[in-house]
Design brief:
Blueprint lengths: L2 H10 L16 H8 L3 H4 L3 H15 L3 E4 L6 H5 L3 E3 L7 E4 L22 H15 L4 E7 L1 H9 L1 H10 L1 H24 L5 E5 L10 H22 L4 E6 L6 H5 L5 E4 L4 H8 L3 H4 L22 E6 L3 H5 L2 H14 L5 E5 L9 H12 L3
Parallel strand pairs: 1-4, 4-5, 5-6, 6-7, 7-8, 8-9
Antiparallel strand pairs: 2-3
Helix pairs in contact: 2-4, 4-6, 7-8, 7-9, 8-9, 9-10, 15-16
C-alpha cells in the first residue's frame, strides 16, 4: 500500500496494511537540513527547497505524510501586514504588528494569495511537493486559524482585552482576518496538491478565555473557515490541531472535521467525562503520563485521532526503545478506530534521529 492511500484509509477508519505515520511540520529539522547541506533561512524562501526538505525527511524517517508550510505560524500574519525578523536556523518571528497601538482596520491589507507575502511561495511549494512525491506522501497544508492570526496583528494581550472592552472591534478584526484566510484556503485547494488542511487552533483553550468568549469570538470564525474549505473541496480532509494544555475538547470535536490532533490534556477530566483511564490503559508501558490520550467516541460520525507520542520528553530525552513502546501503546489504545500515529506536536529540531525513526519502526510492526 502506498503512503498516500494508507493515510487516506487510516483517516477514514478503513483497513490498512499497517498504521500510518504522520510528520508534523519539520521535526528533527537539524538533521534534515544537515542532509541537504542547507540553512533554514535559505531553504524557507525557496519552494523547491521546501518540497525537497519534506521528501528528504520522509526518506530519513519513514513517515507517510508531509506538510507545507513547515512549523511557521507567520505566513498569514505577514500577508496581513506584520513585519518579521528572520533567523538562520529557526522560523521567522513577528517583529512588528500593524494594530499594536491602534484599532484602525484600514491599516490592514486584503491579502491576495497570488502575491501577498509568502502565500505564493506556499502554493508553489505544495505543488512541487505533490509533483515530487506522487503517491508516496500524503500532503498536508497548514493554515493558522483566524483568532491566532488576529492575535499576531494586535498582540495577544491586547486582543484578549478587546474581547471584553471593545467587542465590535474584535468582531470586525476577526471577520476581516477570516475573509482573507478563507481566500488563502481556497487558493490552497485550487492547486489540487493538498490531501488535507490542518488548522492550527491553539487559541481554543481554557488558559486563554472562558467558554462564553470562545463561542462568541473564536468558534464561529473557525466554523466559517471549515465551511469554506468543505464547499470548495469536499474530498479534502480537514484536521484541527491544538497544542495547548487545556483545549476545549468538546467544542473542537463538534466541528465538521475529519481528524483531530491534540498535544496535552487533563487526564483526570478525560476519565471522568469519557470513562477512559489513560494511566490504567497504558500501565504496562507507563506511556501516558500527563498528556492527552482519548479513545474516539463510540457514537456519531467517527473522527480520526492523530498522535500522540510526547514530542518533547519522549522524543527529545528518552531512548528509541521508549519511543517505540509509547508509540505501540498509542496504536493499541486506538485499535479499531480511525487513527494516524504521530507526535503530539513538532519534534524538536535536535531530537535524536534514531528516536524519530523509532516511530516508523513501531508502525511497521503492524496493527
Amino acid at each position: 500500500m502506498r503512503s498516500r492511500e494508507r493515510v487516506r484509509r487510516a483517516l477514514r477508519g478503513e483497513p490498512v496494511d499497517r498504521p500510518a505515520v504522520a510528520y508534523l511540520f519539520l521535526g528533527g529539522a537539524r538533521h534534515v537540513l544537515g542532509r541537504m547541506g542547507a540553512r533554514m533561512a535559505t531553504v524557507y524562501r525557496d519552494a523547491d527547497e521546501i518540497a525537497e526538505a519534506q521528501v528528504v525527511a520522509a526518506e530519513m524517517f519513514g513517515h507517510d505524510a508531509g506538510m507545507v508550510p513547515w512549523g511557521c505560524l507567520t505566513v498569514e500574519a505577514e500577508a496581513f501586514g506584520c513585519s518579521l525578523e528572520w533567523h538562520e536556523d529557526y522560523y521567522p518571528r513577528v517583529a512588528g504588528r500593524p494594530l499594536q497601538e491602534t484599532r484602525d482596520l484600514s491599516l490592514l491589507p486584503d491579502p491576495d494569495p497570488s502575491r501577498s507575502g509568502r502565500m505564493p511561495l506556499v502554493l508553489e511549494a505544495l505543488t512541487r511537493l505533490r509533483e515530487r512525491s506522487g503517491e508516496d506522501l500524503f500532503v498536508v497544508a497548514m493554515v493558522v486559524s483566524p483568532f491566532l492570526v488576529a492575535a499576531e496583528l494586535r498582540g495577544m494581550s491586547e486582543l484578549l482585552a478587546d474581547l471584553v472592552t471593545d467587542p465590535p472591534f474584535a468582531d470586525a478584526l476577526l471577520d476581516h482576518v477570516t475573509e482573507g484566510t478563507a481566500r488563502y484556503v481556497r487558493a490552497i485547494l485550487a492547486t489540487g496538491a493538498a490531501d488535507a488542511i490542518m488548522f492550527e487552533n491553539a487559541g481554543a483553550c481554557r488558559e486563554m478565555m472562558g467558554p462564553h468568549h470562545l463561542e462568541r469570538f473564536v468558534m464561529p470564525r473557525e466554523r466559517r473557515l471549515l465551511e469554506a474549505a468543505r464547499r470548495e473541496a469536499p474530498g479534502v480532509f480537514l484536521i484541527e490541531h491544538n497544542c495547548s494544555r487545556t483545549p476545549y475538547f468538546e467544542e473542537i470535536l463538534a466541528l465538521d472535521v475529519d481528524g483531530v490532533s491534540f498535544a496535552y490534556g487533563d487526564v483526570r477530566g478525560i476519565a471522568e467525562r469519557h470513562g477512559w483511564d489513560c494511566h490504567a490503559t497504558h500501565a504496562s508501558t507507563n506511556a501516558c503520563l500527563d498528556r492527552f490520550c482519548l479513545r474516539p467516541r463510540e457514537t456519531g460520525r467517527p473522527i480520526a485521532w492523530i498522535g500522540n507520542v510526547d514530542n518533547t520528553r519522549i522524543m527529545l530525552e528518552a531512548g528509541p526503545g521508549e519511543v517505540e513502546r509509547e508509540a505501540r501503546a498509542c496504536i493499541e489504545s486506538a485499535r479499531g478506530w480511525p487513527f494516524v500515529l504521530s507526535t503530539s506536536c513538532e519534534i524538536p529540531f535536535k531530537a535524536p534521529p534514531e528516536n524519530i525513526r523509532a516511530l516508523a519502526r513501531a508502525a511497521h510492526a503492524g496493527p
